[in-house]
Design a protein that fits this description.
heterodimer; A: mainly beta; 11 strands; B: mainly beta
């Protein structure tokens, strides 16, 4: 257990469904991130939240909608996804000091059918 | 745009041998990170390199950073099966805590 918890671990959803991914950290970090990991591609940064404000939206389609209600929680709301959105979605947090880098959660394996 | 390249992408090596994974990046940065990922698992932090010439060692792994050459290396000494995993380097993009990751090196240690 890294201190960053993601739920669910696995998710299968149809293209017309709406679902949410949850990330929780109690490390006292004040920056949180969503990354997408697809087969044969580098990790892609999707969103960055710093002190609960979104500071990065890396050209992500609007069918992905992040939410950060407080510094400990981060959500990724999903709707009308495409099969190519199937991937491992990783949440990470950092204290915004350079010494430690990121702490990653275990990820949510998403399959869109 | 910051680009981070790793090579090789795949590495199969025998137990007991030594090898090096290379990480090149395209713009100035003096902060580089190495992570390990086991199949189906998350990324585990291995090393944080924060200055030119930094060298860190943990067990059979040693990482170094040359910011002038924009190059980091991850050296494996006397490999054992437990080191089989995918290794990623990541570079801090202009000091704003947004990490750009390399493509990863999938390492397989053969008995």
């Amino acid at each position: 257990e890294t201190g960053v918890t993601q739920t669910p671990r696995h998710l299968v959803m149809g293209m017309t469904n709406k679902k949410s991914l949850k990330c929780e950290q109690h490390l006292g970090h004040n920056a949180m991130y969503w990354y997408k990991q697809s087969a044969k591609k580098p990790l892609e940064l999707m969103f960055v939240y710093s002190l609960e404000e979104r500071v990065e939206n890396n050209s992500v389609p609007s069918r992905f909608s992040p939410e950060c209600p407080n510094s400990s929680h981060l959500f990724l709301h999903l709707h009308t996804l495409q099969p190519e959105d199937s991937a491992l979605y990783l949440c990470a947090s950092s204290p915004r000091t350079v010494t430690y880098g990121y702490t990653f959660g275990s990820g949510t394996r998403l399959t869109v059918v | 745009e910051l680009k981070v390249e790793q090579n090789p992408l795949f590495l199969s090596m025998q137990e007991g041998k030594n090898y090096t994974i290379y990480c090149n990046y395209s713009t100035t940065s003096d902060r580089l990170y190495w992570y390990r990922q086991d199949p189906g698992k998350s990324l585990e932090s291995l090393f944080v390199l924060l200055s030119n010439g930094a060298v860190k060692q943990e067990g059979r792994l040693m990482a170094s950073l040359d910011t002038k050459a924009r190059l980091s290396t991850l050296h494996i000494t006397a490999a054992v099966h437990d080191l089989s995993a995918t290794y990623f380097c990541a570079v801090d993009n202009f000091g704003n805590e947004k990490l750009t990751f390399g493509t990863g090196t999938r390492l397989t240690i053969i008995p």
